[in-house]
Amino acid sequence: MGPARAGSRNRKRGGAGGLAPRQLSPGIMRVLGPGLSARLLLPLWFPLRPRQPPGPQLSSGPVAAAGALQRAMDELLLRAVPPTPAYELREKTPAPAEGQCADFVSFYGGLAEVAQRAELLGRLAQGFGVDHGQVAEQSAGVLQLRQQPREAAVLLQAEDRLRYALVPRYRGLFHYISKLDGGVRFLVQLRADLLEAQALKLVEGPHVREMNGVLKGMLSEWFSSGFLSLERVTWHSPCEVLQRISEAEAVHPVKNWMDMKRRVGPYRRCYFFSHCSTPGEPLIVLHVALTSDISNNIQAIVKECPPSETEERNRIAAAIFYSLSLTQQGLQGVELGTFLIKRVVKELQKEFPHLGAFSSLSPIPGFTKWLLGLLNSQTKEHGRNELFTDSECKEITEITGGPIQETLKVMLSSNEWVKSEKLVRALQAPLMRLCAWYLYGEKHRGFALNPVANFHLQNGAVMWRINWMADSSLRGLTGSCGLMVNYRYYLEETGPNSIAYLGSKNIKASEQVLSLVAQFQKNSKL
């Protein structure tokens, strides 16, 4: 379980009302009760940009219209982006008129196409960043003062001037927009648009990456833990919240309202963070299962009914974090998941003082893709095999009736292998040790390559147990060959573990994981 994202491409942009109301069948209405029949189950979501034209309506051809729109963008930015005051006047310059920033918000809201929004953001990043001439001048001043014996106050002021010069001009625009009603919401959506444009390669370059970093830093301050409220979701929560939670579930999709009722019912807990400026609106959602031991199968959590309608405290010995979903793409990279897990642990300890085990049950996104890449590379190297032992090769070849690499590539890509009980048994040992190496040994800049592993290891969790056929859903088979992993949180050890991972890049793992890694290293030269 790691922080998953609610994909922005799956949400259609519409008018001020957002997504269309969900149509309720008579069966659902019987479940919900007659008192809810008049309440539309609208998603609780940031208001979408108003539909209004970005400028005068143009009747000429597309080339002329594009040129006119670009000129309108340039005129808007010159008018809306506040100039950077001189250093001496930085605290005396009055704030720009509210209408200037509102003009930008209104204009941006009228851009219906993602390419148009990308164009405007690219022009903002390129033309209204740091004044490099000022930076060079102030840097030279600092270097000169360091070479001469001067009072500390003089050097400190020169350094402060340099810091001031390093602030991009568009930061002032973002700052003043945040003071508008709904301004922070707007900036969250703007960053989501920026990330989408970067992913689509509609806008690229160092200036855009820098602006994304600046905006992420500002959002990280505004959405720090002190401004966040922890809220629990139950079946009696507002319908809008329940629907928003169900739509945000990106790890294990909610099938229907009865499914949602199970996930917030007995032996289950659901929590989310909301911001003080938008109470009741979920930013990130955590689902927890209260079980008798550490779960090794997700279907047992999301499909099976709880043992009883009334919780028996003596049956609860473990808390399993099985889904963590970010609802706002614009908050990607802002540290919310770590804070949410810590707060939920405290809440559960209050409710169940005897609770001793805290663990995730996490997907392993990317494992199947990585494995297919290995099989492909080994096929190209004329059948060289470092992934399977000789006895495994023989057994798998006898079952499949073809060359092991080529046959497995086809079967793993189509999930056909799970239809053969013999093949499932034959693949268990090799796929378990390959998965252990993928999680433990494959790195990006020294840290775990797998993003979910990296998240939990940063939190100080232990890579505790890899589980075979733990997710038999299509998503689980496609993403990780049905494998899942428990990251266990030993509360007294999370601090030292986190420091060791972030500082020395040391991964704390259980004997099971380390044994599987050793088996892989014995059979492979990767």
From TrEMBL:
Ranges for domain Malonyl-CoA decarboxylase C-terminal: 226-489
Stretches assigned to the Malonyl-CoA decarboxylase N-terminal domain: 128-223
One Pfam family of this chain: MCD_N
GO CC term, one of those recorded: peroxisomal matrix
EC number: 4.1.1.9
Compartments, record wording: Cytoplasm; Mitochondrion; Peroxisome matrix
Region described as Disordered: spans on this chain: 1-23
Keyword Magnesium attached: no
Top-level EC class as recorded in UniProt: lyase
GO biological process, one term: acetyl-CoA biosynthetic process
Enzymatic reactions: malonyl-CoA + H(+) = acetyl-CoA + CO2
InterPro entries, per the entry: Malonyl_CoA_deC, Malonyl_CoA_deC_C, Malonyl_CoA_deC_C_sf, MCD_N, MCD_N_sf
Main location: cytoplasm
UniProt keyword terms in alphabetical order: Cytoplasm, Decarboxylase, Fatty acid biosynthesis, Fatty acid metabolism, Lipid biosynthesis, Lipid metabolism, Lyase, Mitochondrion, Peroxisome, Transit peptide
GO molecular function: malonyl-CoA decarboxylase activity
Pathways per UniProt: Metabolic intermediate biosynthesis; acetyl-CoA biosynthesis; acetyl-CoA from malonyl-CoA: step 1/1
Description of how the protein assembles with itself and partners: Homotetramer. Dimer of dimers. The two subunits within a dimer display conformational differences suggesting that at any given moment, only one of the two subunits is competent for malonyl-CoA binding and catalytic activity. Under oxidizing conditions, can form disulfide-linked homotetramers (in vitro). Associates with the peroxisomal targeting signal receptor PEX5.
Name of the featured protein: Malonyl-CoA decarboxylase, mitochondrial
Classification of source organism: Eukaryota, Metazoa, Chordata, Craniata, Vertebrata
